[in-house]
Design brief:
By secondary structure, this protein is mostly helical. The protein is built from seven helices and no strands. It starts with 22 loop residues before the first helix and ends with a helix.
Length: 196
């Protein structure tokens, strides 16, 4: 009977000749365990992000959390987890969701009202653009707001991201994070200085 033929449910089937372990066996086992731990630590120390240092990313996320509402914070943490786990497509979608949420705050500041339900990032940006263009014509404003231009620069990318067949690489997800980081900071600063 081979080892594989034994009935392992029967406790008597496992009784074999006793083995005496020596100090050498224990030393070999200790050496092997140290090697295993070293390999495990190397796996966890490996950085998944490609253009952003993971430690710096953690610091940036911590800073951004103080500028967001509860749902945006949850989304940012989900996006962060996706980024560091090398899951770029969900990271992009979650990060764009944050960009739409903070853009709503900018919309309220610029337009004096909430956007209509279901208004997209592009829709909000277009309404603000029309208002600001009118203000420029009426000499109430010299130029479009830099935040608006920044949002408009991302609208096409955001629209492409919605297509189900669109997949993102890790570097693209990290670029979207940089966009969202700047957008959060710029809108937060605008809200802080203009609402007093």
């Amino acid at each position: 009977m081979t080892v594989f033929d034994q009935d392992y449910a029967n406790p008597n089937s496992l009784t074999t000749k006793s083995v005496d372990l020596t100090r050498k066996h224990a030393q070999n086992l200790t050496t092997d365990i140290d090697k295993w731990w070293t390999q495990i630590y190397k796996i966890f120390d490996k950085q998944n992000t490609q253009t952003i240092n993971e430690k710096e990313l953690r610091v940036m996320v911590k800073d951004l959390l103080s500028k967001l509402d509860t749902n945006e914070k949850k989304d940012l943490m989900d996006g962060y987890e996706c980024l560091i786990s090398n899951i770029p497509t969900p990271a992009v979608m979650i990060l764009y969701r944050i960009s739409e949420s903070v853009t709503r705050k900018y919309y309220v500041l610029e337009m004096g009202k909430d956007p209509s339900e279901g208004t997209t990032l592009g829709g909000m940006a277009n309404e603000i653009r029309i208002k600001q263009a009118k203000e420029i014509e009426e000499k109430k404003r010299n130029k479009p707001d830099a935040v608006l231009n920044y949002i408009l620069s991302q609208v096409d990318d955001r629209n492409l991201a919605q297509h189900p067949e669109r997949r993102f690489e890790q570097t693209e997800a990290e670029e979207v994070f940089i966009f969202v980081k700047k957008l959060i900071n710029d809108i937060h600063e605008k809200l802080r200085t203009e609402i007093k």
